[in-house]
Amino acid sequence: MDRFQAMQMYVQVVDAGSFSAAARILNIGQPAVSKTIAQLEKHLDVRLLLRTTHGLTPTEAGQRFYERVRIALQQAEEAEIAARSADKGLSGILRVAAAPTFARLHVIPFLPHFMEQHPQLKVDIRLDDRPIDLIAEGIDICLRMGNLQDSGAVARKLATSRRSVLATADYLSRFGYPKHPRDLSQHEALVFSQVNDTWQFRRGNEVENVVLNGRLHLSAAEGVRAAVLASMGITIASDWMFSQEIATGMVERVINEWTLPDIDLWAVFPGGRMATAKARQFSTFVETLLQA
């Protein structure tokens, strides 16, 4: 038994909550995972995991072992990176989760530079507008926008974007420019169903709450973007989503005397784990991109 590999596998099993989930993340068969953990328990002469109908739970000894091994693995990774010459950079697999539209516009076009710096690194990007289970999916870092729901996650804010009321110049020339938040009721709203459809506008001490009503609801930000660019209506979104079109004048901000809540971009790391060196360097890379 390779003890180092067995310890890595044990941490993955505890994080994932089951042998099958860990096997899927590690891309090996479940019997191999079960056999390795059994060998580890035999080697230590202690039971590490309790098998229940709800999955796997560490025993008291298993929890102590997990906490120490997790730190030891992190330190081993740091030592390996420190020992490796600077020109080789990071190695292994970096698993990233991100919203498709944001990643397509602001991350993927700049990945060649990051990957050139780290020729031994493989990058696996999972694109999904919906929140995913970072531990179950084996994610190292998630780029998440808006309010964070997972209180157990470790997160670092990378950037902030303005939210705006947006439409193409073509749509506005045909249907007119709204001047007040209440005017949005007279326009065809394009609604992103993943977010709240009630928006709070502010102008000084004035507050106006508006509910976006429209015939077209879309479950993905990419759909909202496509509908706006097809001049189908008006939407509320981050400026990140249309930064290129805003710069060229194809898409315009309206109702500019009123402000909407800004939106934050967070680097989220799986709860209960130290962020890997790969994840930290990638978060710094994205943060630098958005500051440029």
From TrEMBL:
Xref: Pfam families: HTH_1, LysR_substrate
Keyword flag Lyase: no
One GO-annotated biological process of the protein: DNA-templated transcription
PROSITE patterns in the record: HTH_LYSR
MF terms (GO), sorted A to Z: DNA-binding transcription factor activity; sequence-specific DNA binding
HTH lysR-type domain sequence ranges: 1-59
Family: Belongs to the LysR transcriptional regulatory family.
Protein name as annotated: DNA-binding transcriptional regulator, LysR family
